[in-house]
């Protein structure tokens, strides 16, 4: 075995080993050690995966656990064991997860002082699950990491033990547990038909079978689970509650990496397993595209109407996930490349923004932009990170996200482009509005956001500001890297996601600078801050209508677990309808 | 689909329909539940649907268990792979149930109620903010 | 949404789903005649390749061992989460404290009860151990054995009462068992890498078919799972039973706690 | 399909319904233990003794016990209020 083949399982086993060791010794470890170990393990995982990404440029790196290679059974189409496979895209995403975790560990320094290593044990298991999710090439193994990711996330959400955190965690657990049952059932259906779990072998079987309700049903169940994780309308309702109430260092991971992994998993499955099924590709191009657009728009509007900073960011995450789903459903090579780049750019930016929210929760004891009005003075580093992040999300023509948007829009229709641009502008303007209120004392009468739910809470104070600000600024700086440098790698990554031996793709060098999103962001931002109390009758009527509209939308996101589960069933029904037509 | 006429429903589809039934019933329970602990119980019903489905998929008529202690290897046996998948999942399912129950206990302590209709993570702002 | 509307929406969704479910159910391979080749291949090959009689164990601990490691970690996550939730609210930041809560008023128990409970607890433990040990040859294995052994703890609780019980099963030991078992599994997976073999490769002598020791590395993995599951479920039971006691029942004296 | 498997499948469907319909959590525990037992027997009939063992240990013993403990804790909290 070559070095990279040996290192492939280490990327998962290292965090697992560190976590179990820390748990076994939790009672006797000095309190500082787990924090240091966790940072180094996350960095090591990042380094290993970067190495794997580099090595896989010469062809995919594979590792068969227990030595059960596909020919161990001496029967074609029967794969006895489980394989990991690093292609450039998967390995790069795993490395990205390692990076986000190390940033989050630095940010969380001092947050969980009193607890016995439990936080770090859970986080390391979480990291291992995400890396495994990226690297596996076995459907049931994918389910295992998906579920491990979910369970670690449940536990971490409830960790602060606050009222909201507990209720958010309850909703989160119920909806996502249901999603994992769906995924297990879907995996079972696909196994019953194809007789294998291995992606490549399953892909061949799917292409042989052709149109078949069992395969489509299996895909729908698995996709519904992944879309629940990726918070796509109407499966998205849990996210805003969970991300808003989880501890900030955990929210960084949730919004920055976990949710977009759901979409990456879906993209990988569509490319490697279901590319030969016309039914499935029809669903992807049709229903998923519509769902993506709807998600982007609804969540964008919801983000604009929030006052609780973390909830605002959570809705912005949903909105951007909708945009990513449109890229996924477009299915062209440039759009897929755009999707991969967007995951990175969005994750870095959103991670930084959640860190800013966490900083405010720690230093100013609130995350409500109206309560915090003018309280951010003197915190120049978080202000810088927040304004930078808001501009990036709002379409600043610099950095990874802009490059990604350029790639995605090449294969988007004009109405789709209009919707995604509007969604981008709404989320960007919402964040900038909050930043202006908190840090610059800019005012304007609050609009619909005044009615949004909020919570009085805080996070552990007395943590060094620079340890919280540095990772946020570093992530924003990384998101500002010019995308041109990454294009050759991205070309190889996109091509290999579909076919491990494909030649690298030549991606179009950065297109024209598109200033429309930024202009729209600025306009919405100005609109929010120039708002004055409605005095005249027509103005009042407009305000009332606006409030009624937003109230209806807020009512949809009721926070009641029964509602959320009902909407999940509706989502499944949508899939059933779309595949029957 | 020509096989969709109601009279021609083959009995061999029974396990799949039972699985779908269990899942639907569980969903109904979750949606109408007025007590979080009851809701968790309904969730376990949904989960049992996946077990029935998977084990049904591996069943082979007139075959023995995939344990060759009494029968020599080579005697017909059912699919061991789906059994392995379900086996571990049952244990994990119990642990997730425990996690949910722990959350429910704490919700009761913090809120004094366990009616899912009354639990929503973030509350509308206090009127004083106007 | 009012509950009525919600129910209506759910009914509508299920109604739409019903024909789709029916269609899938009717196109699936008929019950009792699966077409998947993997399972039958395992049945045909694994007895010879791994010298074990229980195919489920062969799949769980060897062929798809990394899945089992993942499931093991889920268990760890869920139990750790539940522990944090329950303990955090009791204000027990120190794990040691949960292990020694002296001064619990002991309800006097008849000697016969204590004896019967001790006997049954021992029996349960033995059954659990036996189920775990015979995992390679007969139905059973680390998962089931671990759960059974952990439920033996409950009988001890009935017999010994709270104080004696807490003294017998201190949570730090259970946590160490839980984490240590999983660590052993990770080592089983990782150590072959150092020798240049694939992770989890079964390099130990395979033993005799139908023997207690058969399956090589699988025996070790099975033991690791048994330890970890027993520790996890033991901890879960301890923490939940702790919740059923009044908080003010037994004020902890500081001297004893130190 | 043998009659036994069919009967157990229908019984499982019924006991699952009972779990959902027992709205009182304390009564639901008994329904749940019954459901676990039925499922265990069904798995045994489906030639899955390993899974049956696991389901009976977990479904009829450990899970109901956890529910009992949780309900006791909740009752105590309600009594305090």
Fold topology:
The complex is a heterotetramer of chains A (581), B (130), C (258) and D (81).
Chain A: H1 3-24, H2 32-55, E1 61-64, E2 83-86, H3 88-107, H4 118-135, H5 139-158, H6 163-194, H7 199-209, H8 213-229, H9 237-245, H10 248-272, H11 278-304, H12 309-330, H13 333-363, H14 380-393, H15 399-409, H16 414-440, H17 465-479, H18 487-498, H19 516-529, H20 537-556, H21 561-580
Antiparallel strand pairs in A: 1-2
Chain B: H1 14-32, H2 36-58, H3 80-111
Chain C: H1 3-27, H2 37-50, H3 55-63, H4 65-90, H5 95-99, H6 111-133, H7 142-168, H8 171-194, H9 217-243, H10 254-257
Helix pairs in contact in C: 3-4, 3-9, 4-8, 4-9, 6-7, 7-9, 8-9
List keywords for this structure.
heterotetramer, C: 258 residues, mainly alpha, globular, D: 81 residues, 3 helices, elongated
Explain this structure:
- Chain C: The chain crosses the membrane at residues 112-133, 140-159, 179-200, 212-238.
- Chain C: InterPro entries: CPA3_antiporter_subunitB, MnhB.
- Chain C: It is found in: Cell membrane.
- Chain C: Belongs to the CPA3 antiporters (TC 2.A.63) subunit B family.
- Chain C: Residues 115-233 form the Na+/H+ antiporter MnhB subunit-related protein domain.
- The complex is a heterotetramer of chains A (581), B (130), C (258) and D (81).
- With 581 residues, chain A is an all-alpha fold.
- Chain A has one domain.
- In chain A, 71% of the residues lie in helices and 1% in strands.
- Chain A has helices at 3-24, 32-55, 88-107, 118-135, 139-158, 163-194, 199-209, 213-229, 237-245, 248-272, 278-304, 309-330, 333-363, 380-393, 399-409, 414-440, 465-479, 487-498, 516-529, 537-556, 561-580; strands spanning 61-64, 83-86.
- The longest helix of chain A has 32 residues, at 163-194.
- Chain A is globular, with a radius of gyration of 23 Å.
- Chain B is 57% helix and 0% strand.
- Chain B contains three helices and no strands.
- Chain B has helices spanning 14-32, 36-58, 80-111.
- The termini of chain B are far apart.
- Chain C is an all-alpha fold and 258 residues long.
- Chain C has helices at 3-27, 37-50, 55-63, 65-90, 95-99, 111-133, 142-168, 171-194, 217-243, 254-257.
- Mean pLDDT of chain C is 82; it is low at 93-106 and 247-258.
- With 81 residues, chain D is an all-alpha fold.
- In chain D, helix 2 (25-45) runs antiparallel to helix 3.
- Classes of the chains: A mainly alpha (581), B mainly alpha (130), C mainly alpha (258), D mainly alpha (81).
- Chains in contact: A-B, A-C, B-C, B-D, C-D.
- At the B-C interface, helix 1, helix 2 and helix 3 of B face helix 1, helix 2, helix 3, helix 4 and helix 9 of C.
